[in-house]
Design goal:
Blueprint: E1 2-9, H1 16-28, E2 33-38, H2 53-64, E3 70-72, H3 85-95, E4 99-106, H4 119-125, E5 127-132, H5 138-152, E6 161-165, H6 173-181, H7 192-201, H8 207-219, H9 222-241, H10 246-255, H11 264-273, H12 280-284, H13 290-300, H14 307-314, H15 325-336, H16 347-359, H17 364-382, H18 389-398
Parallel strand pairs: 1-2, 1-4, 2-3, 4-5, 5-6
Helix pairs in contact: 2-7, 3-4, 9-10, 9-15, 10-14, 10-15, 13-14, 14-15, 15-17, 16-17, 17-18
The structure holds fe (iii) ion (2 copies).
One fe (iii) ion is lined by residues 227, 231, 256-257, 334.
Length: 401
C-alpha cells in the first residue's frame, strides 16, 4: 500500500516552514510522497490579501520542484462550491483505493479539529498527522491527540493519529506578505524560486506604499532616499520586536524626511504658509524645521491622518518628553539605521552608535536615553549650535530613567 501524505493550506505564499513540516512527516512516517494541496480562498478571507488560485499553485510548484517525493494537486482548487476535507479524502480514497492517506495538520489546528465538517469521517478516511510547530508545547499536543482519539473511538474503530516533531520556526505567510509590502528581503523565508516568482509578478506589493516610495525617490537625493528606506525597514523591525503597528512604523519611517529636499528659503516659506511656530534655534538653522514641515506634508500631500504617525515625524529630530512607542521607534530608527555613519575621528560618537544599535532590540527606553544624551552632549560640547527647547526637555525627561 502506498503511503501518501496530504498537506493542505492556503499557501499564501508557501514558505520554508511548510516544506519542513512536509519533510518531517515524509521522513518520520516513511511516506512514499506528500501531496501539497492548496485550498480555495475561503469566503471569510475573500477581501484579504490572498493571491489568486493560479499564483498560489504556481508558487507551490516552484517550492517543491527540487524536493524528491513532493507533488502538487489542484483537487481542492478545481472543485466547485465549498470544499470540505472529508469530501476531499473521500474522492482520494475512491480514486486511489490502493493508497493509504496521511492528512498533515499543524499542532495548532488540532484544538479546532472536532469542529471541522464530519471529523469522524475524516478520521475513518485517513490517518491524522499532527506536526509540532514553534511555540507550541509538545506535551500539550500529545494530550490533545489522546483526547481526540478517545472522543472519536467506537467499539470497532480507533482513529490513527500521529505526532511528528518538526524543526522550530516562526516563519508565517503573514509576515512574508508584510515584508514584501515593505520591500524587506524575504531571503531564507521561502525557496528562492518562490521569491523570484513573487518578485516578478509583484505579488503582495502595496500600491499605496509603492506610490509613496516613487514620490520620495523623485524628490529626495539618492543618499537621502536610501536613508528613508533604511529608516522605514529598521522601524518595521523595531515595531515587530516591541509589538507596535508595523504599517504605521513603515509609513512614518518612509515619510519622516519627506520635507528634507527644501532649501532654507523654501522651509521658511512653507513654515509661514502653514503657521508653523519656529523656535529661535530653528530660525537660525532652518533645516531643523524639516521635521515639523514633514508632518504637514505627510498630512497634506500623502493623506496621512493618524496623529501618532504625524507626531512621530514631527518629533523625529528633537524628541520630546513622554514619547509614544511609535515616536520612540522612529527617533531611534533614524539614528541607528544601517547606513548611518559616524565620524570615526570621534570614537565616543561611534561607540554610542554601536551601543544604540545593539541595545535597540533589547531596551527601547535605554536606547532613547543614550541617543538623547549623545545628541545633547554633541550639541553642547562640540558645536556652537544652540539647542532646541524641545530637545532639552526631552533630554531632561529621559536622562534619569
Ligand atoms: Fe530628519
Ligand atoms: Fe532622517
Amino acid at each position: 500500500m502506498k503511503r501518501i501524505g496530504i498537506l493542505g493550506g492556503t499557501f499564501n505564499p508557501i514558505h520554508i516552514s511548510h516544506i519542513l513540516i512536509a519533510r518531517a512527516a515524509f521522513n518520520e512516517l516513511a511516506l512514499d510522497r506528500v501531496i501539497f494541496m492548496p485550498s480555495k480562498n475561503p469566503p471569510h478571507k475573500q477581501d484579504l490579501d490572498v493571491a489568486s488560485d493560479d499564483d498560489r499553485m504556481n508558487m507551490v510548484r516552484f517550492a517543491i520542484e527540487d524536493e524528491p517525493g513532493f507533488e502538487a494537486s489542484g483537487l481542492e482548487l478545481n472543485r466547485e462550491g465549498l470544499t470540505y476535507t472529508s469530501d476531499t479524502l473521500k474522492i482520494l480514497n475512491e480514486t486511489y483505493p490502493e493508497a493509504k492517506f496521511y492528512f498533515i495538520i499543524g499542532g495548532d489546528s488540532l484544538a479546532s479539529f472536532p469542529h471541522w465538517h464530519e471529523p469522524d469521517q475524516i478520521l475513518r478516511r485517513c490517518a491524522l498527522v499532527c506536526v509540532g510547530r514553534a511555540i507550541t508545547d509538545n506535551s500539550l499536543i500529545r494530550n490533545k491527540i489522546a483526547k481526540i482519539r478517545t472522543m472519536f473511538s467506537t467499539g470497532d474503530f480507533t482513529p490513527e493519529i500521529y505526532f511528528v516533531n518538526a524543526p522550530q520556526s516562526d516563519i508565517s505567510s503573514y509576515m512574508i506578505r508584510k515584508y514584501i509590502s515593505y520591500d524587506i528581503s524575504i531571503l531564507g523565508l521561502t525557496k528562492p524560486a518562490v521569491s523570484d516568482y513573487i518578485f516578478k509578478t509583484r505579488l503582495y506589493r502595496s500600491s499605496v506604499y509603492d506610490e509613496f516610495m516613487m514620490k520620495m525617490e523623485s524628490l529626495l537625493s539618492p543618499h537621502r532616499f536610501t536613508h528613508v528606506k533604511n529608516v522605514a525597514k529598521t522601524a518595521v523591525k523595531l515595531a515587530r520586536t516591541y509589538n507596535a503597528d508595523m504599517d504605521k512604523a513603515y509609513i512614518a519611517g518612509l515619510l519622516h524626511d519627506c520635507a528634507k529636499y527644501l532649501d532654507d528659503e523654501q522651509m521658511l516659506q512653507v513654515a509661514e504658509e502653514y503657521n508653523i511656530e519656529l523656535e529661535e534655534v530653528e530660525k537660525a538653522s532652518l533645516q531643523l524645521v524639516h521635521a515639523k514641515i514633514g508632518a504637514v506634508f505627510a498630512r497634506e500631500v500623502y493623506g496621512i491622518e493618524d496623529e501618532d504617525i504625524l507626531n512621530a515625524i514631527r518629533y523625529h529630530t528633537t524628541g520630546r518628553p513622554n514619547m509614544s512607542l511609535l515616536e520612540k521607534i522612529i527617533y531611534i530608527a533614524d539614528y541607528i539605521e544601517p547606513g548611518r555613519k559616524r565620524d570615526i575621528s570621534d570614537p565616543q560618537a561611534a561607540r554610542m552608535l554601536e551601543l544604540a544599535r545593539s541595545f535597540a532590540s533589547v531596551d527601547l527606553d535605554q536606547t532613547l536615553k543614550y541617543i538623547l544624551k549623545e545628541t545633547y552632549d554633541y550639541l553642547v560640547n562640540k558645536t556652537d549650535y544652540a539647542i532646541s527647547d524641545m530637545t532639552r526637555k526631552a533630554y531632561e525627561f529621559y536622562k534619569d530613567i
